[in-house]
Amino acid sequence: MRVGVLTGGGDCPGLNAVIRAVVRKGIEAHGWDVVGFRHGWRGPMEGISRPIGLDDVEDILTRGGTILGSSRTNPYKVDGGVEKIKAVLADQGVDALIAIGGEDTLGVAKKLTDDGVGVVGVPKTIDNDLGATDYTFGFDTAVHIATESIDRLRTTAESHHRALVVEVMGRHAGWIALHSGLAGGANVILVPERPFSVDKVVEWVTRRFEREYAPIIVVAEGALPEGGDEVLLTGEKDAFGHVRLGGIGTWLADEIANRTGKESRAVVLGHTQRGGTPTAYDRVLATRFGLHAVDAVADGDFGVMVALRGTDIVRVKLAEATAELKTVPVERYAEAEVFFG
Amino acid sequence: MRVGVLTGGGDCPGLNAVIRAVVRKGIEAHGWDVVGFRHGWRGPMEGISRPIGLDDVEDILTRGGTILGSSRTNPYKVDGGVEKIKAVLADQGVDALIAIGGEDTLGVAKKLTDDGVGVVGVPKTIDNDLGATDYTFGFDTAVHIATESIDRLRTTAESHHRALVVEVMGRHAGWIALHSGLAGGANVILVPERPFSVDKVVEWVTRRFEREYAPIIVVAEGALPEGGDEVLLTGEKDAFGHVRLGGIGTWLADEIANRTGKESRAVVLGHTQRGGTPTAYDRVLATRFGLHAVDAVADGDFGVMVALRGTDIVRVKLAEATAELKTVPVERYAEAEVFFG
Amino acid sequence: MRVGVLTGGGDCPGLNAVIRAVVRKGIEAHGWDVVGFRHGWRGPMEGISRPIGLDDVEDILTRGGTILGSSRTNPYKVDGGVEKIKAVLADQGVDALIAIGGEDTLGVAKKLTDDGVGVVGVPKTIDNDLGATDYTFGFDTAVHIATESIDRLRTTAESHHRALVVEVMGRHAGWIALHSGLAGGANVILVPERPFSVDKVVEWVTRRFEREYAPIIVVAEGALPEGGDEVLLTGEKDAFGHVRLGGIGTWLADEIANRTGKESRAVVLGHTQRGGTPTAYDRVLATRFGLHAVDAVADGDFGVMVALRGTDIVRVKLAEATAELKTVPVERYAEAEVFFG
Amino acid sequence: MRVGVLTGGGDCPGLNAVIRAVVRKGIEAHGWDVVGFRHGWRGPMEGISRPIGLDDVEDILTRGGTILGSSRTNPYKVDGGVEKIKAVLADQGVDALIAIGGEDTLGVAKKLTDDGVGVVGVPKTIDNDLGATDYTFGFDTAVHIATESIDRLRTTAESHHRALVVEVMGRHAGWIALHSGLAGGANVILVPERPFSVDKVVEWVTRRFEREYAPIIVVAEGALPEGGDEVLLTGEKDAFGHVRLGGIGTWLADEIANRTGKESRAVVLGHTQRGGTPTAYDRVLATRFGLHAVDAVADGDFGVMVALRGTDIVRVKLAEATAELKTVPVERYAEAEVFFG
What we know:
The structure is a homotetramer.
Chain A: E1 2-7, H1 15-30, E2 33-37, H2 42-46, E3 49-51, H3 81-92, E4 96-101, H4 103-114, E5 119-123, H5 139-160, E6 163-168, H6 175-184, E7 188-190, H7 198-210, E8 216-220, H8 228-233, H9 237-260, E9 264-268, H10 280-298, E10 304-309, E11 312-317, H11 318-321, H12 330-337
Parallel strand pairs in A: 1-2, 1-4, 4-5, 5-10, 6-8, 6-9, 7-8
Antiparallel strand pairs in A: 2-3, 10-11
Helix pairs in contact in A: 1-10, 5-6, 7-9
């Protein structure tokens, strides 16, 4: 048997751990040939592949990125894309595919399965916003890095009696903000799921200063002030013009400085959150995902995605898996509010 | 309302995060007075306590250890111990207790509830061997530290063509060995749940050397070779005399060296695994446990323990919680075996 | 004898290590009373102080920030400021001062010594731009943090075939950029000492992409393109308008994207570089500075600053110490250029 | 021109950074062919080599170990060893060698130069015990790792009111113990240069417990109690029998427990100290060593070793460089004693 593996979409710590597990189990337990397709779906479409053996994956568990490269190519948006994939797989004698990626990659995986190609999906989103699994790998690493930064920023904030706004990843879901904010002891946490009142933020910040501490505000990049959308849509640049240039973190730091008269600074963590070596947690999760994806292929159980439920790895239909975005529920946010101010 | 909190048993990263969450939510959400009892159950027995306010917990989230101190005192093994506790609580006007600890501490919590004292438990075991919860805080930190060490040891092993045996914590359960072994890319993982064959270990090690890599063997402190118990019981010191002195890691490194003729070294990670700042994962888990313990007290729901199930914090009866040791199941160990050799 | 200690200027990892060493040696070796003045020079001017004993410094070695607080108050810019200090010192029976700070703080220390107050200086600048000492504490920590970030950003850059611009601290001196750029394997390093040619940067970046790697560009916040000053002075905002808003990093990332057609992103490390626990190197250096400052006071050798020369701690006159900014010399920058492109 | 490079002796973080700098500068600045010899001096003796190009060193800066492998082979202890090296170099057209290693490797380098082979040395010793240079790379990494461990152990010691003995590397020189002890806030530091009085250690430990803190004792593996040598020589095993089995750390922990009645534990950091990614400090130092070694070769200045003096890289004669062991001087140890107890 000959099985292909590919990675699609953005960088995420743990991709290599999945690849390693697939190769290792495919070869050691099943005697398969494993083939790596390069650059996401471009690989099987254009026939860019190479065999991956045990030696190729010896040294990759601890490394960020993906040895296969990635892309956002979608064969369903390319003329004859699906036919090309089928031809390449037939030509190379590849019997099944393991596709590691986010919503887009898994969406293609689902359609391909419907179209007769055997695909098993492995979920990947640093934002943890995929509903069908408790957690995705990469998320713990992002939270870990953001928390380390918050730890460091606290002493600086305290020494200078400043407000510090830390902007973390999360365009549509506030999981990284919520978890790193809780772990870092943030005094305000702002998420995309819940438009925030600047007055309320100023109130928390002021209370903090009155208690003679320095406030740390963790804000997801996708968080917006109440009415922020409208203002942006109407193009009023005075009030929110900074948003596009410097992001919500910079905008909020300015607002806090203006309204409280206190020094206020923003730090935008940016891409540091998604690179580098994965945490132990993410290595274990990614490894287990890889192993169970191989099991699904061995069982001929295609059109599924591996997922974490409690401490178990289970299989869910790709159709369900990509159905909806998992956002921070009201009660989880409420849980954190007791630490605000 | 006046609520007491105490920590019992061994050190574990995240204890302070629980205390902080209890104090913060107790005061901010319920207006309680929170009282810290010192030295585990000795505190409420001997009346050693002090009020804990918001300022006392400002700075403790990131710190290992416990600001309350700990002990292994068991009031049920002290004459009149339970009566003393009741008298102290009555005297200090304490209405309920939150007890953070392992099997022993929670066992006392259960009995006290039966005896009419309102107690809510928070589980704490670095070994992750408590059945009623998916994970306990401290475990992720221990795995993280062990994994960092394995990462460092790999290059040394490779440079010197040596076998390296890493002994990690885990007397009765192999969770730390399993997870850090998977995360560190270990070539053999040995756990207390499964007596190991030295011949098999030597086979894996040899195969590894033949592939021109250096083997890393992760062994839980409680792992034993097949027949190890008997040998130890009969007092044959020649074969296993080293075990008591240097631990299983040292013993195994010697065995490997003797049987393969290759250099072999042991590193015993020891107490470094259970101290210092908790990982972000453990801080979030410990914080959520603390918040939900307060909810249980507020609900008057005593005799329960908070527990993680998937991504939810739930309550379980203390009676169930302490009933059995959660060991590494056969299938989880089997999952890892594909990486051996 | 009664000796005061104070910290002035910006936050810097290692301040608490100096304070601890001063207190420990002052008390243990000399039997002094040690007094901490709060908020830099404001403390001795306004009489805000408290005794510091051994217990106060037990727990501070590993912590960022300063337990004494800081400020930028300059008694020579306050009416009667110096007289106030003399009066406070006389009143509190303080015989000598140890002042930990940068150029401004040490400038005051020098003048005060001339005016009859016994002061010993301890140099502090995260930028490492003080000429009289090989290194200052805080610098190694800043370089360590910047390097960790570069390590993480590399895999992201590679996975996405992007240029990544990392903006680090250094308004007037490029030491942090130079050292973190060397340690992180940067493909271009830009420092304030040397206006850069954007054409040349684009050439290096292009070469890097041609070799199928992703370029990492480390730029000090104070670095400017050739002609940048003039352009800024003449107020031409089109070309350099972004500089003020987003900093040189963002500006440069835009330039690279525009000129190469490749995706390009900026990460501004900002305040994360100056907070949190010091590296072992900085803890040792800060500790030794504190010990030797006590020796100078004990010798009655005022108007001096402790400094590192090779592996020795020496004393230099404060007058020399604050005379000139230590910038990156031409040959040190040239040394690094072999790694560009 | 064709230049060979090799690494000899034990593992040390930074070896790959030297190799990368040599290759990069050799090729980019001088247009050399660079050849890597494998397994230390075995490589040039047996002709085991391969060309190293820019791509080979792209990814190695952050990695521990050495891509060239290492050995302790000494051509002067092999019949005709030197002649073999000359023949291989002539055969492969190699004009000069850069040898990275410790005392042994550099001793061979010196003799080879005397025997007409052009060699430039790069010093490598994790123990920092080479007299001709302020610091060697690898040392800062070892101190960093030991300090992180001490930080973690402190909270465990405090929570359990235990004495914790941390055994670090250093057979003949106590530099790692001294620096990690200072950086970690150790309460006793014991080094090979100074036989210690167990009574004195017990006194410090006791004082610490009386102040209600938990003592941390950092001991170099080569430290010995007063009279320890004699006792060992006379073979009295009762008193010091544990020394050989468990090392000085374990022995000392037992002594402390026996004499104070307090719980006492030993942690032996072992090989974790010498593997894994180098600190930023070590990467910069190693890189600069590599660059300057190339300069020396380009100048035809053989028989020298590069060395750090203050912030400069200088050249010293190999003869001087290997003449004597740099141990911890009396005054540096005395400096630290103020923190004992």
